[in-house]
Design brief:
This protein is 60% helix and 0% strand. The longest helix is centred in the middle third of the chain and has 26 residues. It has 124 residues and is an all-alpha fold.
Length: 124
């Protein structure tokens, strides 16, 4: 991790492009919800409206394909904040329980305090 990346991660001001496309660093719950989930929800709503108006599925399909990468990247950074590897997200493959467990881990549980093996505390 570069010095500029470490400072951006450490102070919680990680740019949205890094939240969406990088697998390095840590993000807190607030960043996860405000810079990943809410914008992604808005983009999905716009894509659904476009698809509804045009009678197609192209916008939704494109948004969905990009969403795989973006979701894994943001999830990996939240896993890092919880001092877990990004591979922990594979827990979602356990039917029903896995998705609920991952939602709780990423969206609601506080990250580890202080610096961990993935970088500085985003709340510091």
């Amino acid at each position: 991790m570069t010095e500029s990346t470490a400072s951006a991660v450490g102070n919680g001001d990680m740019p949205i492009s890094q939240v969406w496309f990088s697998f390095e660093g840590r993000i807190g719950r607030q960043t996860y919800w405000l810079k990943y989930f809410l914008p992604w929800l808005a983009i999905n709503i716009v894509a659904a409206v476009i698809d509804g108006m045009t009678g197609g599925l192209v916008a939704g399909l494109l948004v969905g394909l990009v969403g795989i990468w973006v979701g894994i990247a943001a999830g990996a950074k939240r896993c890092h904040d919880r001092d877990r590897t990004g591979w922990f997200q594979l827990i979602v493959l356990i039917p029903i329980i896995g998705a609920i467990w991952l939602l709780i881990e990423l969206g609601f549980l506080k990250g580890s305090e202080g610096e961990n093996r993935f970088g500085p505390d985003p709340l510091a």
